Amino acid sequence: MSDDGFLRVADVSKWYGDEQVLHDVSFEMDRGDVTVLIGPSGSGKSTMLRCVNRLAEAQEGSILLDGEEVLSPDLDVNDLRREVGMVFQGFNLFAHLTAVGNVALGPRRVLGLSEAAARERAEAQLERVGLGDQFDSYPAELSGGQQQRVGIARALAMEPKLLLFDEPTSALDPELIGEVLEVMHGLVDEGMTMLVVTHEMSFAREVADEIVFLDDGRVVERGPPDQLFERPERERTGRFLERIASHD
Amino acid sequence: MAAGWTVALAAVESAAAGAPPIGGAPAIIGDAADWEFVFRNADYLGVGVLLTVGLTVASILLGFVVGFPAGAVEVYGGGYLKRAVNAAGVVLRGTPIVVILIVMYFVVGVPQINLGVVSISSAVTAGILGLGLRSAAYQSQIFRASLASVDAGQLEAGRSIGLSRLEAVRYVVVPQALRRSIPGFQNEFTIVLKDTSIVFAIGLAELLTRGYDLFSERTTAVLEVILFISAIYFVLTFTTNRALDYLGDYYAIPEGESA
Amino acid sequence: MAGATRPATVRERVADSDRSVGRLLLVAAGALFWGWLVVSWVNRWLGGVLVPVGDPLVPPGAVEATLAAIPGIAAYAADAAFVVELSPEIARGTWLTVVITAASLVVGFFIAVPLAVTRVYGRFSAWVSLAYTELLRGTPLLAQLFVLHYGLNLGSYVPDTLSGVFARNVVWVAIVGFTLNGAAYQAEYIRGAIESVEEGQITAGRAIGLSKLETIYYVVLPQGLRYAIPSWTNEFVYLIKYSSLAAFITVPELYYRADQIASETFRYTLIFIVTGVTYLALVLTASKLMERVESRVSIPGLGVDRER
What we know:
The complex is a heterotrimer.
Chain A: E1 7-16, E2 19-29, E3 34-38, H1 45-52, E4 60-65, E5 68-69, H2 77-83, E6 84-87, H3 99-110, H4 115-128, H5 144-156, E7 162-166, H6 174-189, E8 194-197, H7 201-207, E9 210-215, E10 218-223, H8 225-230, H9 235-247
Helix pairs in contact in A: 3-4, 3-5, 4-5, 5-6
Chain B: H1 7-17, H2 32-40, H3 42-76, H4 79-94, H5 97-108, E1 113-114, E2 119-120, H6 122-149, H7 152-160, H8 165-180, H9 182-195, H10 207-217, H11 222-251
Antiparallel strand pairs in B: 1-2
Helix pairs in contact in B: 3-6, 3-9, 3-10, 4-6, 5-6, 6-8, 6-9, 7-8, 9-11, 10-11
Chain C: H1 10-45, H2 60-68, H3 77-121, H4 124-137, H5 141-151, H6 160-163, H7 170-195, H8 199-207, H9 212-242, H10 254-265, H11 268-297
């Protein structure tokens, strides 16, 4: 690990009204790292993820991305988001656009590429996620796994320096999870910097450089997967992992 | 120029042929003397309001009495009856209300009805028939949709406890469907209320017609009169809507969708 | 349900062919109606190239003679001839009805979209939009036309450049009235459709770096406007029918012409039935047209098949 502090999350707190959903969350990751956020539902993992691209607003703390303060009120959130891609649990594909249309919209309208260049880029990204034969299919014509791969291609087309995954396989039928994880594996191999919220523990174990266990809005424990899975320091971590394992 | 026009257009045309409606730039607030004129004639307009409300209620009721069975026929009926209901609906929904009213008035030629105590002029009868039947055509669509939206399992469950088909519809499907038709019905109610103004065409002296008569009499008060009656219409539609909102909440099935 | 599969029984097959005959008749009637209208209009614009302006396309006498020769219909020959005789006036009035409806609908649409968007996404502007739609939807259209015509005498403010376009300037007043009124109703329908677009669509748009306005324009509206088509068609149909109210501010459209002829000839029954049929034809054309549009722009894979 080069320890370049590419993403530094420090003491981030967030409230929804009176309810505090994040308590001083801190972690770091380097360029090319894969960090996986795990924890029970409602633990604040997704909220934490969304604070990084400001889809959710943290009220306190600091998030430095490549040396720049994400939480700064002066920051143009649209500039931030063109550099930070996001893949959603529910895919959120634009229902009125084809696979190519979904992927090309960002390059065309946000990056200002020409129609032809945006299409070319979209096709290349769809090839990358193994959907070279579905360019002109509409979301409703695709399986869940295919839709999620379009979702990944859409995020990749912006050539992001950080990719956020918000439970990318949770909405999928079990037999469709594999194809999405395969694509994500490929991205890991290419050296993509990824922050992932997931319940897929074997995936986390395989690819993560660091696992962050969140519970009740707090970081309970963090560390390399082997340590966290084999020798958790906290009892709560152990209990959570056991519960998850018994489901598999 | 035309020899004689059907009621309202004659008046409208002669108004146009004579002096054009008030010239110059009218003040937004209006003239104090003209407002005074409006308020002096408030009771005259008040009778118009009564007629408007009466016409609305009568038309909605007629629309319900005819429209609900028509909707049921479209869902549960078949054969020629269903076709006939369907065709009548298409004609009534595809023709302007003013044409329907004129046809009722001149073509059907509904007579004056004498009830001994009160007599109902043929314009009123034509108005109620025209607005009521047109409303029936729309209400049938509302009820058709809400009847069809009740899950088929409800009817089956009704049959399974030994109700006849008619009973199952009556006691199981209809109560649910009626609740679901409240939003559509609300819409229909305000449409009928606003469209009572169109009986102007057959010279029935409801609110708008009386307003027209008033500003024809005093042409400087045109804007004041129309704004005043518009405000009355607005209050009527607004209160009707709120009242039906309340009705919808009141009869909503607990925890179920109120729509 | 059964539409996709092959009709099984003889009865179903008969019913099926019944329907296709009905459809064929409807298409033929539509073609005849629009053919007659367009030829009549063109004839008038070109100063009577086919028949003198004001004359029917076919001589009423010939129609009467032909029909009188057919047993069974002979009794109606005179009526038919009368209808043919008044057809030029009907066509003339229908032209204004079509123009007023189309213009109001199109201009109203461009007012309605911002109204709907501000209603959903605006703050202060949402209240302005709400007030506008409630006010216009809460008062009778005829009263609104009276305000514009008798109250504000809008016809006298028509700019010179627009002044000669129609025979009477009051046509512009009608267009303004229907536009303002229709915009309120269209906005209401579009608002409903916009609200039905999933929240995740907006999130996804924002996540790739589109601004809020860009997300509305590129993501929400393309979907919302599609969803709005069925209810928007209602407004289209309403506008065709309510355009008849323009007669009461002396716009010589279809209803006005019909009333004029009726008062001259006292043949109320026939004239208003013909008028009603003409409106019905316009309304059916509009709804068939919009059904076409809806299926043309429907998003593949998304079930948009409406209830019949």
